Amino acid sequence: MAIITLHKERLQYNFERLDYFFKLKEIQWSVVTKILCGNELFLKEVLSLMPNQVCDSRVSNLKAIKKINPKVETIYIKPTPKRSVASVVKYADISMNTDIETIKLLSHEAQKQNKIHKIIIMIELGELREGVMRDDIISFYDQVFQLKNIEVTGIGTNLSCLYGVLPSTDKLIQLSLYKQLIEAKFNKKIPCVSGGSSVTIPLIFQNKLPAGVNHFRVGETLYQGTDVYKDAPSNLLKQDIFTLKAEIIELIEKPKVPEGDFGTNLEGKSFTFDQKEIGKTSFRAILDLGILDVDQANIFPKDENIKFFGASSDMIIVDLQANDKKYKVGDYLEFTLNYMGALRAMNSSYIEKVVV
């Protein structure tokens, strides 16, 4: 069986460093929990750190969060599906929105539930994911301010996730200026400018973050200890908050090159092999882990001598070469994971979750 482990002390270290840093800069931050895929064991560890806010892109995950701690403030961080309006109002204290008809439904549902539902309106600043077009901002806010049981608590943007458009001082100044424009136009206070995510953190160190940006949504830097702007480990944080290990279920010395007529594998891939490898052998280990659970491009053996041979739906085959470390059936091979590797592994119900 494969196991993904959450290292509690490393997570706590990163949380405390980030929390101290953001408080020093008078910035509110929200912990993104979507990488945990609603796993109750891991969610409890994150919530035990006492974050002021948590945010997620799945209503079911917010439901699990509210079950553990009903008092923690929750944010739904993608445009609300119309069929999920009732659940979003019930489990999200705040939601991020871009569609006026959906916000009208949220208003109606909030009245039914006798709640004030807060929203952050997302603005398009070049990433071309979610966001109201800039020419439409004033008329959009005008309509939203008419709605009952809706409180506009912020303005926000998303960068980097789809096309890798990096945040810049100019883009975030635009966001702050739109906030000021709306406040002046409608005589309304908008307390939150949510322009920050993990990729924006380096701008603070460089003193390039506009003063108006006061809210961050942080996931990858917390869980991976990375400087996302540079796509590199941060020397201020710990890495390997998540580690993965998979059991060897077969280990036999076999030829390096398969024999027979070749078609395509289950992924539709075809292969060619170095003819110089014909006649050579190595120890091949089959792991109790497959494409269904992880993408081998996002996991990295701690033993650098191990190479991937390939994978099928439920098994990954690795090359142990001469097997100098004398691995045997039943042993575990350990892997580090990038963000997508951890997310995919967390989403697999076939991988055991453990806290150490």
From TrEMBL:
Keywords: Isomerase, Pyridoxal phosphate. GO terms for molecular function: alanine racemase activity; pyridoxal phosphate binding. SUPFAM superfamilies: PLP-binding barrel. GO terms for cellular component: cytosol. It holds the Pfam family Ala_racemase_N. The keyword Isomerase applies. InterPro entries: Ala_racemase, Ala_racemase_N, PLP-binding_barrel. Residues 53-225 form the Alanine racemase N-terminal domain. Its cofactor is pyridoxal 5'-phosphate. This is Alanine/ornithine racemase family PLP-dependent enzyme. It comes from Paenimyroides baculatum.
